[in-house]
Structures are given as structure tokens and as C-alpha cells.
From TrEMBL:
UniProt xrefs under Pfam families: ParB_N (PF02195)
Listed name of the protein: ParB-like nuclease domain-containing protein
Classification via InterPro entries: ParB/Sulfiredoxin_sf, ParB_N
Domain (ParB-like N-terminal) ranges: 8-96
Chain residue ranges for the region called Disordered: 145-169
Domain of life: Bacteria
Length: 220
């Protein structure tokens, strides 16, 4: 099934939220995005010929609410004209398909750390710390699986977590550097780092830095 996806500008005052929207969105975060990024996709509005409810929003209800909060007079819309059954399917599919998505934390962290700030992204520094912590946990788990001699023991893990509890990386004088590699190269890099790691007290980051310093020195 395809729809005649007519795009137009509509007065915010003439649009109505879907009458049974189960989604509870973060209008504050959306409003910040509208301020920083502007509107970058239209909201989907049902003309209402078959439902008796004209100009009802099927996708983008919280964008409409945020636009109202920001005092917008007009908003870009994409019109469809469907019956009640199809409208309900569009509303639920729009929400559920977003729920079923997942993230590659490494790529997400790279995107966020490359930005000068987090304004308009929907993320705050605490969110970024959580993402980086998940990456750290994955690295530790992988390391434990591949090299028991240099693995961090449960006691060491707990001691490290206790010592740094409540501190951000910035407060600990640390900064994350993300390297994105194809799977085969990433496996080789993991193996080489483990081979070069002299003892369990040397971090993987220190191994990489020492190797880079050695390579730079040999080329000087």
C-alpha cells in the first residue's frame, strides 16, 4: 500500500493530537532539538475524510506539542487520508518500530564525542558517561574471555568501581578515544594489544599509547 504523501505547511492551531495516543514522549528534549536543529522531517497528519476527525496527527504528536510550546505558528506536515483501522496501525507501528531498534554504543559514542557539545542531540553528559561505561564493561568482559592471565578479577573490578563511584571520566582525568575498525581488524587489534601487554597493571590504553610512541620514535 502506498499513500499520496502530500507535504505542506499547516497552522499549528488547526492540528489536533491523535485521540488515543499511547506514547508518552519527552517534549522538552524535542523542543530543544527544534531550537537547535529546526524541523527536519514532516509530521504525519490524517485529513480525516474517513474518520470524521480532521487534521489529526498520526506520527509526530510530541513534535506538535513541542512546536506549540515553542510558539510556532506553522509546521511542515505530510498528509494521508486513512480510516480508523489504518490510522491506529500507523500510530502503533510508528511507535513500536522505534522501540525495536538498538544502538551500536561505540559508533554512538564516536558521534557524540565528535560534537563540540550535546545540544539538540537528546543526550546529556550523564547519558554519554553511561554509554562509555557500557563500552568499558564490554572491553573488560571480552578481555576476560580471551586472556585469563591478564583478566581483571571480580575483586579488582569491584575495587575499581568503588574507587571511582560517582566520578565522571573528566573528574578522574580520563578521556575516551574510540577506534572504529572492521570486525577482522578489531579482532587482530585485540589480539596484538594482549600480546604486547606486559602485566595486568598495564591498561590496554597504555599499551596502545606505548606502541604509538614507539612507532613515532622509529620514524623520527
Amino acid at each position: 500500500m502506498t499513500h499520496d504523501l502530500t507535504t505542506d505547511t499547516a497552522p499549528v492551531a488547526e492540528l489536533r493530537a491523535y485521540h488515543r495516543n499511547p506514547r508518552q514522549g519527552d517534549t522538552r528534549a524535542i523542543a530543544e532539538s527544534l531550537r537547535v536543529n529546526g524541523q527536519y522531517r514532516p509530521i504525519v497528519v490524517n485529513r480525516g475524510t474517513h474518520t470524521g476527525r480532521a487534521n489529526e496527527v498520526l506520527a509526530g504528536n510530541h513534535t506538535l506539542a513541542a512546536a506549540r510550546d515553542e510558539g510556532w505558528a506553522e509546521i511542515t506536515v505530510c498528509y494521508v487520508d486513512v480510516d480508523d483501522d489504518q490510522a491506529a496501525r500507523i500510530v502503533t507501528a510508528d511507535n513500536r518500530t522505534a522501540d525495536r531498534a538498538s544502538y551500536d554504543d561505540r559508533i554512538l559514542a564516536e558521534l557524540l564525542t565528535d560534537l563540540p557539545d550535546l545540544d539538540g542531540t537528546g543526550y546529556d553528559p550523564g547519558d554519554l558517561d553511561d554509554i562509555l561505561a557500557r563500552i568499558d564493561d564490554t572491553v573488560i568482559e571480552t578481555h576476560q574471555d580471551t586472556d585469563a592471565d591478564y583478566a581483571e578479577s571480580p575483586e579488582e573490578t569491584q575495587a575499581r568501581q568503588n574507587a571511582t563511584e560517582g566520578e565522571t571520566r573528566a573528574e578522574r582525568g580520563l578521556r575516551e578515544i574510540i577506534l572504529v575498525l572492521p570486525n577482522a581488524d578489531a579482532d587482530e587489534a585485540d589480539s596484538l594489544i594482549d600480546q604486547l601487554r606486559p602485566d595486568s597493571d598495564t591498561t590496554r590504553g597504555q599499551v596502545v599509547l606505548d606502541a604509538l610512541r614507539a612507532a613515532a620514535g622509529s620514524e623520527a
